[in-house]
């Protein structure tokens, strides 16, 4: 069970699936429960495939980092080879095909989300530039658009889904840079140019703070586009929480303040997505 959760990064998968569900809820129009359920599950499976692919490709890196040393491909508990590659590709293809039964756009964005994480971020950018995560953040944006496309092809490009896609894009860098400060030595040892490694802890901490402020402000944008009071409470509470944690990190960069900022990013996103869904159900 533990192996399964870790191999497919299922906790992250559930967050991505919740993101897609929120995308479908804020999209204009209504559809049956089926298309929404199919696309939400397709995003979960596509994310699982991309997460397993990431570990398949990074077995060498994972062995050099304390946090990831115990992963199945890194320890050799699972053998790298054609069988696992086939399973991973089949999962991604199956997820994209399932989304295609709903609409071309739903399939396109599900595919692009997994492709951005698995290929653009993991293979092309992660080892090459500190901006890896800025581009990689588009993966979360695609989850929003995939969810919105479960309502109708045009719904994915309506103002509210686009606003939430933008919010996810802004969310990812301060989310990840907080954690990268905690594990800076790990990334340095593995030779990965994450921001705290190339720019130092203090500048990375200031970037987290600036990112959290931009995020908290952008989270207000949906209020101008029709979201109501329930969303306002979740977006403002989450924003205040994350900005406060990021401020403490910027003032006093340390592993403890960075860990608190990472946790605050997860609470902020959960509050924002849950509030968006509740607002639409109310
Ligand atoms: C390319 C962009 C991203 C990067 C590089 C990134 C990086 C990370 C890392 C390194 C962890 C540590 C978890 C582990 O040990 O596996 C993590 C945790 C987490 N991330 Fe992200 N993340 C990204 C995007 C996202 C997105 C878009 C979401 C959700 C919408 C998300 C949700 C989460 C959650 C829920 C956790 C906690 C999981 C746990 O406790 O195991 N992340 N992230
Ligand atoms: C629409 C759709 C299917 C979207 C899926 C996108 C997705 C799963 C994004 C998550 C990105 C992520 C968990 C990165 C982990 O970083 P890392 O792999 O560098 O972390 P590590 O050091 O723990 O391996």
Overview of the structural elements:
It is a single chain. The protein is mostly helical and 282 residues long. It contains 16 helices and no strands. It is flat, with a radius of gyration of 18 Å. The mean pLDDT is 97. It binds protoporphyrin IX containing FE and farnesyl diphosphate. Farnesyl diphosphate binds next to helix 2, helix 3, helix 7 and helix 9. The site of farnesyl diphosphate has 20 residues, from helix 2, helix 3, helix 7 and helix 9.
Pick out its properties.
282 residues, mainly alpha, Tetracycline Repressor, domain 2, Four Helix Bundle (Hemerythrin (Met), subunit A), 2 domains, 16 helices, flat, binds protoporphyrin IX containing FE, binds farnesyl diphosphate, protoheme IX farnesyltransferase activity
Average pLDDT: 97
Which fold does the CATH topology of the largest domain refer to?
A: Tetracycline Repressor, domain 2
Distance between the termini: 36 Å
Looking at the overall shape, the CATH architecture of the largest domain is Orthogonal Bundle
Which molecules are bound besides the chains?
protoporphyrin IX containing FE, farnesyl diphosphate
């Amino acid at each position: 069970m533990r192996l399964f959760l870790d191999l497919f990064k299922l906790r992250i998968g559930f967050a991505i699936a919740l993101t897609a569900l929120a995308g479908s809820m804020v999209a204009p129009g209504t559809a049956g429960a089926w298309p929404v359920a199919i696309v939400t599950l397709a995003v979960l499976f596509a994310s699982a495939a991309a997460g397993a692919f990431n570990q398949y490709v990074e077995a060498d890196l994972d062995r050099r980092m304390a946090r990831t040393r115990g992963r199945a491909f890194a320890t050799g508990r699972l053998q790298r080879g054609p069988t696992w590659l086939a399973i991973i590709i089949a999962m991604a293809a199956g997820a994209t095909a399932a989304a295609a039964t709903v609409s071309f756009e739903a399939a396109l964005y599900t595919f692009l989300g997994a492709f951005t994480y698995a290929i653009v971020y993991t293979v092309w950018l992660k080892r090459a530039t500190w901006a890896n995560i800025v581009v990689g953040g588009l993966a979360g944006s695609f989850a929003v658009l995939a969810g919105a496309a479960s309502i109708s092809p045009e719904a994915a490009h309506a103002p509210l889904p686009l606003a939430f896609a933008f919010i996810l894009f802004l969310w990812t860098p301060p989310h990840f840079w907080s954690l990268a400060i905690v594990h800076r030595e790990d990334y340095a040892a593995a030779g990965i140019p994450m921001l705290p490694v190339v720019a130092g802890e203090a500048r990375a901490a200031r970037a987290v703070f600036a990112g959290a402020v931009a995020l908290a402000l952008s989270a207000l944008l949906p209020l101008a586009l029709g979201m109501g009071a329930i969303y306002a409470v979740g977006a403002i509470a989450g924003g205040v929480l994350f900005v406060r944690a990021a401020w403490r990190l910027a003032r006093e960069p340390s592993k403890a303040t960075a860990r608190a900022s990472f946790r605050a990013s997860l609470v902020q996103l959960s509050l924002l997505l849950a509030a968006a869904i509740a607002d639409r159900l109310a």
